[in-house]
Amino acid sequence: MAHSLLFIPDISGFTEFVNRTEVVHGRHVVAELLELVIDSDTLGMTVSEVEGDAVLFYGEGTVPSLEDLADQARGMFEAFHARLKEFEARRICDCGACRTAHTLSLKIVAHAGPIEFLNVKQFRKPFGPEVILAHRLLKNDVESNEYLLVTETLLETGSGVSAPTPRGTSSDWGSWVEGVTDYDDFGPVVYRVLPLSPLLEGIPDPPRLPSFPRTRRPIVRDTFVDRPCADLFELVSNLDLRLLWNPSVDELRYDADRVNRVGTKHFCVIGGDLIEFETVTDDFGEGRRVYGEKLQNPPLVEGCAVFYVMEPEGTGSRLRVEVHYQPKRFPGVVLAPLFRFAFGRRLPGILQTIKDTAEGRLDDEALAETAGPSPIAG
User: Fold this and answer.
1) Using N-to-C axis directions, what is the helix angle for 229-237 and 336-360, rounded to 10°?
2) Residues contacting residue 217 through CB under 8 Å, at least 6 positions apart
3) Which residues contact 113 (CB under 8 A, 6 or more apart)?
4) 60-70: per-residue pLDDT in tens?
5) pTM
6) At what angle are helices 66-90 and 20-39 packed, to 10 degrees?
7) Taken in order 251, 253, 257, 263, is the CA torsion positive or negative?
8) Fewer CB under 10 Å: which end of the chain, C or N?
9) What is the mean pLDDT of the chain?
């Protein structure tokens, strides 16, 4: 029986979450990273299944060379950490999951052997002792938490490899070292480990998105809301909750499997018109939480962004909405007062709806009902 490749990238680093928001956001972060790992496959492997924070790939009847495996691991690792840098640079949420996402790590185990396959309906899954061993190898005696681990068995059968790679042989960024772990049901298993953490130095920071230019005389309204800033921020920034407090939206289209961050786009259907929004943020002073949305191609003005600014006050929060905009050149500048009047009339109603929702409907049950993908997400 020809040997087949088993390849398991595994994400680790999240600790236990303490509230529902962190569980939901953590799930979205891991799902996005696992999709990225799958999309980074350059070896033409097959995804058997997603297993919690890991993906089981296999290559039936083929075992790549050590060089190809190292290149594959490098590509996945660099894409993974580039996305983590983007998470941190553009996050707007301070929950434990979002705040610590940049500390996540990636390890990869590669093994090969004679593998049986189980066919159930349209699914074809590898099974047998070699599959069990590949999973056992995720628990090993390697001291670091970011590496590529390749078993001796794979090295002896991989294409282009006629003998085990000598200890200390170098890749472009590090040296392979030999290791061994003794497993109760398999005995001692010898492997080689290539550290991936040296690659971190070469991963560039994401490009900085331009901030929206604030105006001297924004449209401003405010109110007191008897809820903590964290709850209020979750209400206005979580698109899953948007329809609870914005009944003027007929339909909301967004990616329900992504955590909202700077640069995230969503679409609202209001009165038959499709309006595009992009998440932005800005610094409105220490101790304040800020969530903003920029309107794409707003009527009457050149540009427009709505900022929700929250700060603690007494038993709750002071919620201030600021609308910043740039008038168009003449004759558009004549329309700016009309824009101010129209938006100014709407803001008290928006604030009141947010206040009523936060104080009356925003509870654990409401959060649980909206924690999954929206039926109208697009």
Assistant:
1) 120
2) none
3) 3, 4, 6, 129, 130, 133, 153, 157
4) 999 999 999 99
5) 0.86
6) 140
7) negative
8) N
9) 88
